Amino acid sequence: MSVSIVATPIINGISVTGSATTITASTAALGAASAAAMSVTPTGALTATNVQAALEALSVARDIKSFQQNTAPTGSTLTEGDTWYDLDDNEFKVYRETSTGVFQWVPIIVGAAGDTSDILDAGAF
Known about the structure:
The protein is mostly beta strands. About 10% of the residues lie in helices and about 30% in strands. The chain has one helix spanning about 50-60, and strands spanning about 5, 15, 20-25, 65-70, 85, 90-100, 100-110, 120. The longest helix is centred in the middle third of the chain and has 11 residues, at about 50-60.
């Protein structure tokens, strides 16, 4: 006799149906398992085969951050290529090197660029 366990968000508790061959549970506790013990199927450029390795790969693969706030993000964790949507001015900006060793938030616009902005041109700025 095999036993089938099905988790569902609709049923509260555990109910046994039929000849006790199927158990349906929504609030049953699952045993603790480490992320390294949970297998995943690699896809695309992600080659990890467990959850822990996948999370680690995703965290270091791209250190680009995205912000949505009224004031410009600051701090030592900013990286060239970070993006910020300025909610006050409704502008999309990228953090980039504007001259040797000088990094600034530069608006990305569609149309003519000025001294303090870049043109969005086929995915490049």
